[in-house]
Amino acid sequence: MDPTRLQNNLHTESGPAPVQSEEVASVLINIKQDLEDYESEIRRLGREMERLKHYATQLRSLIPPFSKLSDKILQDIFDDCCDMNTFRVNGRPKPMHLSQALKSKPAMVISSVCSRWRRIALSMPIIWSRISLNWGFWEDHEYTEDEMETRFFPLYNFLARSQQHLLTVHFEIRLFVKGELHPLLKQIFGQVGRWQCVSFTCHTGFTLSYIMGRCGIRGASFPALRELYTRGVVEPEDLTSMIDAAPKLQTLNLPNTAIQLDGLNHPQLSHLDFDPSLCTMEKLFDKCPNLFSLCIGESTWTGSGVDPMTIACSSKLEILTVRHGQRYDPPRFPYSVFRFLQLPSLKTLYLKEEKTWGDIDDPWSHLEHFMVFIQTSAFQLTTLTIQHLFISDANLTYILVHIPTLQNLTVDDSGITPKCSPISSELIESLHSYRTSSLRQQTAPILPRLRSLRLLNVAASTFRDLLVVDMIQSRWNPGKLCTEGTSAFEVDCLRAFTMTFLNRLETEVGDVYSPLGPIEKSGMMIVIQMSGVTLRD
Hints:
single chain, alpha/beta, 537 residues, 18 helices, two-stranded antiparallel sheet, 16-stranded mixed sheet, 20 strands
């Protein structure tokens, strides 16, 4: 049949003759068959493309993405990335995005990238030995072999790949119900002899004794345990029995927990975190004579028969963290721990916000006790960090005048309103190396050894920026490190300065900080941010 003739008929008002209709029907059948053939071929080619893509993905997995990095560097990177592998027991597992998997089980994700990464990951039992269990309920039924294989094989795999490396284990417990012990717990608690660092976070009011009893390890020994962290209800006798079963325990973290030390006698402890009573403070350094680091709540209370003038002294403690801002009842907790401490070897002090008790809306009332602590301890403090503390700029300057050995100062104003903030233009002016100010009448500089200054989360909407520039320039003296016997008017070279504002815009500042450019190029690290925008970095 002539296609041209049929095409011409499409442009006329008369249709084809009867004989031509049969020819048209035949052509349509052929066209339909051709279309089916083409669609079949398209599907075949699509399958071939998918097969080739899958094959290419497999081949690419044989090529490390960073082939120039040595195995040792990759091991260090993997060690940093795989800080914890989380297993959640909250009902049926849900599909997980790759980014979620990377966060929850980084060791498994990294070992799946390529053959080289897998070889390196499998040679590092430490990245498989960090395990966190987080669950909200126990499913009250027995598990079949298929369910065990499907749902809990990854944990078995992690324990096997950790070989005999000591374990870091975190338990976050939200709810217990009656029933069989969960298979995940059976696996983890079967390895108590390998526990090195263990933390319990209990949201349901169960004591540590109950948890250990439910998991079948009450009375067990912990020969490798070096670090214990608990948050929740802890009975003194339970804690004592667990500590007694851990002869190598060095770090004990019991935040917001008040315990008695009558049964605690562990000279090997190097770090302790708890809320002490005055009775406890009196015995603390006798029971734990080798403490290197201590974290305590600021407010404390007396016990019966305790001398309120008791002084707890340690010549070995070098790091002290004090949680301020507790909303305790003043009649019950009238004292500051600073009143009872004497720490001549102290090097680092953190005044840390106690987040449990909400915002701070009252001025810090323990300045007098703090100053007595500074003067009686006569320490050579080098690092001071102050977070969320309602204190005036005048009082902060007064404190700094009495710590001339300070090298690193950080003041974080998170949550502090401008009128309550110690970070003011007057404070900056008082830090000038030779100029006096309304807060500093002495001609000798304060903080002559200062090398790093960080002023964070300043809420002020305006600031005298030229004073900041002038202060930094006055302390830029490259290569200058003062030693004993130098003039009281000499200062060390400031090496790092950071200041971040929460409520100021870049356009409001302009180029006022541009004079700091040459100093930054010469070696000082300068970071100044306005509402998240970095002006200098």
